[in-house]
Write a structure and sequence with these properties.
By secondary structure, this protein is an alpha/beta fold. It is built from 15 helices and twelve strands. It folds into three domains: 44 residues, no CATH class; 213 residues, Methylmalonyl-CoA mutase (TIM Barrel); 140 residues, Cobalamin-binding domain (Rossmann fold). It is globular and about 85 Å long.
Length: 479
Amino acid sequence: MSELFTEKLDVSEFEGATIAQWRAAAEATLKGKPLDKLSTRTSDGLTIDPIYQRDHFRALAGSENDPGVFPYIRGAKESAAWEIVTDGVTPLPRGCVEVDAHQIHEDGGTAVQEVAHAWAEGLKELRRGVTEGKSVDEAARCLRFTFAAGGEFFVALAKLRAARYGWARIVTASGGSPEVARMIIHARVSHWQQSSLDPHTNMLRSTVSACAAIFGGCNSLVVSPFDEVFREPDAFSRRLALNTQLILRDECHAAAVCDPAGGSWFVENLTREIAELAWADFQKSEVVDTAASAKAQRSSLSNRRRVMVGVNQYANPLEKPLAPTKSTATTRLAGHFENLRHNAWTYAEKHGGLPKVFLLTMGPLKQHKARADFVRGFLESGGFDVLYPTGFETASNAVRAARESGALAAVLCSTDETYPDLVSAVLAEMAGTMPVFLAGYPSGDVESFKSAGIADFIHLKADCGAFLTAWQKTLGIAL
């Protein structure tokens, strides 16, 4: 086989390209829009650039070291294996102390806050051990840290790498040896990101979260049953939770390679950013306040900058609500949309069907389809039964069909160019019998359309959660 690779490939005919040339080519496809405009921020407030290259990233000192080598960025152990935990709590060795940071995530905190909290609490326990007469090495050897496995994949992965780096520095700065500065991490799949809506999707979320924790170098891991947040798990859901880890270990061979993300310019840069921001928080010695972060994440979900499949996007209109056998915590990220759907299901029990909204799809398919598709997904996340007919030729036919449908409201779906004529015609035919929304936001005509009687606008920048909440109340769906 080696003979196949003895001949070197000659690429001399191709000219080398500089990063400036790559940027210029990318900006050309963006029609002159600066590439920097493509930089985004995660729900944790971390910056994600559109491109990373060798000369434009910074890694933490020691990131080039092998797994199991101080400062343990690439793992506290040389093996990629982890302990599979099934009962939710990993057993602590006798005399050891748990430093629980995962609750910061469950309360809506960021990865940076979770890491900073772990360091602060870990240092307290380290000092307490010394006060009780232990050496720094003895105290450090007794600590076990618990982190949440959840959130955005690369952030969850880089979080564990950053946490180990900072803890190694803290222990050695306190007088401990490098050997005991290994942070031993137990990871728990997050409840914050789980939902009672389209609940089997939780299995997919848990699998991704488990991968992030494993690739991030956790020492042990528990995957919660997909239904744990809204009912007592049964044998089926518990078996699936266990099999998630077994498949990752025995079929996907996730335990075969240590730190597979190590060396990625993106991951190394993200690890450094989390570590530096967490270190700044750690030095403030303040109680972690997760309220602002939780609010920001809920706002991001509400206006659909953040997606939860089956919750605020790609909702299943045929979903039948599962009867919870225990109180569901609406403090989770999806809580607002869970309440909206509960309102719609309660309405259906009283009225024999979900609340209906009729789409006034005007003209040929290409004229209304893009906006009608968007509106359907927008409204279905609030539990509405969206009636989506083929296009109408006249406003009178559209309005007649809407009235006969039993809908509570209608949405006019067409183009900005046709709206001036259609709005006046539709509103005249409707004669105030039901609210009419407009698909889109033609800024030059918004005020005149409002004055004419358009009740609201459904568009890309609309706050979906706020819109649905307000109109559920107005239409009598929510009390």
